[in-house]
Design brief:
alpha+beta; Rieske Iron-sulfur Protein; 4-stranded antiparallel β-sheet; about 150 residues
Length: about 150
């Protein structure tokens, strides 16, 4: 016996097939949604180019009196050039993890969240920060600023 499009058994068969496909898709999506974080945890991420031991910055990008924040070893790092020299420190405030900024007028590093203040060596001058910022090695070679272990 052939099924005609007008036959009710044809419609119930196509509905059943459609519902099976729909439910299979939903179930498969839920399983994928559940397993994805597990696989991301078990498979380590690939190393990026930012993980190198040295970052090169053109000196024109950080003129005297200014600063720049770069990503050194997956940590925001502030590079500051002053008349006194070149300074590089982790840019993460030790109080609550905000990104610090260079205050050129007062010649100090300031956390915009809770007003913690640091000197150019990373020492806490005032505010709620419990520890100093970590110093990162930096030097100028030719027209490049080299940040990191050399």
């Amino acid at each position: 016996m052939e099924l005609n499009k007008g036959d009710s058994s044809y419609l119930s068969t196509t509905r059943r097939i459609f519902m099976k496909i729909l439910m299979g898709g939903i179930f498969g999506g839920l399983i994928g949604w559940f397993l994805y974080p597990i696989f991301r945890y078990l498979i380590p991420p690939k190393n990026s180019n930012q993980d190198s031991d040295i970052i090169n910055i053109n000196t024109a990008e950080v003129p005297v009196g200014k600063s720049k924040i770069v990503n050194y070893k997956d940590t925001p790092t502030i590079v500051i050039r002053t008349d006194y020299g070149l300074f590089a420190l982790t840019a993460v405030c030790t109080h609550l993890g905000c990104i610090v900024q260079w205050d050129e007028s007062n010649q100090e590093i300031v956390c915009p969240c809770h007003a913690a203040k640091y000197d150019l060596n990373g020492n806490v001058k005032s505010g709620p920060a419990p520890r100093p910022l970590t110093v990162v090695k930096a030097r100028i070679v030719d027209d490049k600023i080299l940040v990191g272990e050399a």
